[in-house]
Design brief:
Layout: H1 2-51, H2 61-79, H3 82-85, H4 87-103, H5 110-156
Helix pairs in contact: 2-4, 2-5, 4-5
Length: 157
Amino acid sequence: MQLSDRAVIIACHRQHAVSYNAIIWKEVDMTAGRTVSIGLVFGLLVLFVMTGPVWGQGPTPAQEQEFFDAKAALDSARNAKAESYAPDALGKAKAFLEKAQNVRAQENTKPFVQAVRLARAYAELALAEAHLKDEEGKRAAASEELQRIKAEFERLK
């Protein structure tokens, strides 16, 4: 009797071991499938992130706003008489703004953004130079007026 009990226990153990091994292999197969799926998804995600700028759709709304800000800065410089006070900086600002306009439709936005930022920087430089030279002109005029008044005062003494 003891032998038969032992045979039953061994038989049950073998059956459970076979079932357990089958469960393990199913889990390994499912895990391998998940790993392949996760690896595939991760690989596609990396590919999309790396090639995303190549597949771009042109300038973003923020980049378009930078373009309009650069145009406004150029207009401000023109209004401050930068054409006569700072023609070099104003010319560069115009050139970069034209370049930005020419590359605006390209999918790669890097040249557009660079040209816009340089256009704005040169426009602001032209504006600053125009204000500076305008102030220098006003100061020179005030100095001449002061000299004229001093001469008039000396004459009246």
